[in-house]
Amino acid sequence: DVQLVESGGGSVQAGGSLRLSCIGSGYVDSRICMGWFRQAPGKEREGVASIWLIRGSTAYADSVKGRFTISRDNANNALYLQMNSLKPEDTAMYYCAADEYNHGLAWRQYQHWGQGTQVTVS
């Protein structure tokens, strides 16, 4: 099975930066699709960014394009999200997810999930 553990969340002022990390174990290799998703209180979970290295494809939500960058380190089974120019509306619990197939930002299709890391922007 796949296990995912996120870290790197915290509190930051608007305009600041954070880098989220997700370390995977189990059946995690370059073939699977991985992504970052977030859920704010009272709102539905939404896709932030995804990456599928087998085709070199990435996807970003319009709200984060130009500010967030997703990347992977396959040697260490790691997924990252560099978040710059953070805004209060970026405040949410951020989740790492993985799946055998490329689902892009369609979070309901992902099978494996981490526990989340909180990001608060004030």
| Structural classification | mainly beta
How many individual β-strands? 11
Order of helix and strand elements from N to C terminus: EEEEEEEEEEE
Q: What is the end-to-end distance?
A: 37 Å
What form results from the Cα inertia axes?
globular
Radius of gyration: 13 Å
Major sheet characteristics: 7 strands, mixed
Strand content: over 45%
Poorly predicted spans: none
Number of helices: 0
| Oligomeric state, counting identical vs distinct chains | single chain
Mean pLDDT, nearest integer?
93
Helical amount: under 10%
Name the features:
seven-stranded mixed beta sheet, mainly beta, 11 strands, 50% strand, 122 residues, four-stranded antiparallel beta sheet
Which helices and strands appear, and what pairs or packs with what?
Layout: E1 3-7, E2 10-12, E3 18-25, E4 33-39, E5 46-52, E6 57-60, E7 68-73, E8 78-83, E9 92-99, E10 112-113, E11 117-121
Parallel strand pairs: 2-11
Antiparallel strand pairs: 1-3, 3-8, 4-5, 4-9, 5-6, 7-8, 9-10, 9-11
